[in-house]
């Protein structure tokens, strides 16, 4: 089949977008908003299929085994290129077994604590942790996630003790945090925002060097006594290796159009996510550079699997 014929006939059925985390987490939210808009422009439904587990690897591996015809895609976060630095025996190659489609968004992480916590600043957190060794637990969306590595990096930078508690996604971790089972969490802005807005959680600071556009009132960790502290996460779409280039281009174009829609932009901004919409070539280069960056962070932070 020629490229022109492929483009003209694709898609002629619903597209399955595998999200390797539970509903309600940041990967799910950012993917779902764009998928809904793509369904309008691409001519077929783009259906979210949540397949959580193993730090996103169960759903990701499923996609590698799918027919590369553009009907099974992966929506994942930066953990996609973090996992290889932490898991020595992965059953797939996070770069070689996928074709990058587009980066959806860049997102700062936000340090959150329960609403009734005595911790109201980064300084408070450091003092509390030093006064309560062995009693500070921080949650994450899973071992080796950006949330996990942010916590490990801060622990080392601040010289404090914190115990990492991994969850199968951000949503259940946030629930336990609001309930007081955890003392803090570095979470993606999109998933933490609803609980911050409802008053269940208190936002303390963001992990990027610049203040977040969505919450300019929040200080950065860098300006709170830790110069150079800079961690963010991102979300993207991939297809299985071997998916025809014209289909990849069509998907990327549709996603980019969705990311320019004022309603999508408004939803992303409300979540604290900044739309990107890169080309497949741009995203492929970004994936390569990010894999190296996160590998360096894993080594420097000393992060281990729990």
UniProtKB/TrEMBL annotation:
Family: Belongs to the UPF0065 (bug) family.
Alphabetical list of SUPFAM superfamilies matching this protein: Periplasmic binding protein-like II
Name listed for the protein in its UniProt record: Tripartite tricarboxylate transporter substrate binding protein
CDD domains xrefs: PBP2_Bug27
Pfam name, any one: TctC
InterPro entries, sorted: BUG (IPR005064), Bug_dom1 (IPR042100)
């Amino acid at each position: 089949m020629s490229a022109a014929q492929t483009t003209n006939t694709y898609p002629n059925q619903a597209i399955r977008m595998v999200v390797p985390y539970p509903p309600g987490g940041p990967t799910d939210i950012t993917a779902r908003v764009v998928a809904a808009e793509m369904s309008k422009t691409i001519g077929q439904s783009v259906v979210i299929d949540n397949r959580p587990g193993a730090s996103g690897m169960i759903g990701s591996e499923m996609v590698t085994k799918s027919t590369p015809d553009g009907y099974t895609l992966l929506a994942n976060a930066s953990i996609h290129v973090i996992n290889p630095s932490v898991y020595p025996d992965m059953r797939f190659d996070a770069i070689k077994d996928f074709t990058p489609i587009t980066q959806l968004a860049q997102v700062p992480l936000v340090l959150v604590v329960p609403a009734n916590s005595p911790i109201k600043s980064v300084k408070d957190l450091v003092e509390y942790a030093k006064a309560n060794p062995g009693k500070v637990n921080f949650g994450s969306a899973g071992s080796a996630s950006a949330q996990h590595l942010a916590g490990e990096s801060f622990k080392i930078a601040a010289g404090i003790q914190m115990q990492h508690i991994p969850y199968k996604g951000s949503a259940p971790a946030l629930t336990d945090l609001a309930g007081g089972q955890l003392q803090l969490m570095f979470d993606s802005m999109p998933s933490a925002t609803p609980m911050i807005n409802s008053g269940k959680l208190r936002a303390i600071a963001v992990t990027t060097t610049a203040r977040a556009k969505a919450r300019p009132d929040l200080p950065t960790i860098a300006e709170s006594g830790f110069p150079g502290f800079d961690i963010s996460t991102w979300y993207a779409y991939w297809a299985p290796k071997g998916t025809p280039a014209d289909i990849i281009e069509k998907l990327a174009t549709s996603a980019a159009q969705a990311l320019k829609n004022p309603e999508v932009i408004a939803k992303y901004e409300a979540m604290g996510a900044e739309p990107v919409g890169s080309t497949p070539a741009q995203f492929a280069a970004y994936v390569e550079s990010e894999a190296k960056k996160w590998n360096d962070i894993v080594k420097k932070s000393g992060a281990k699997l729990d």
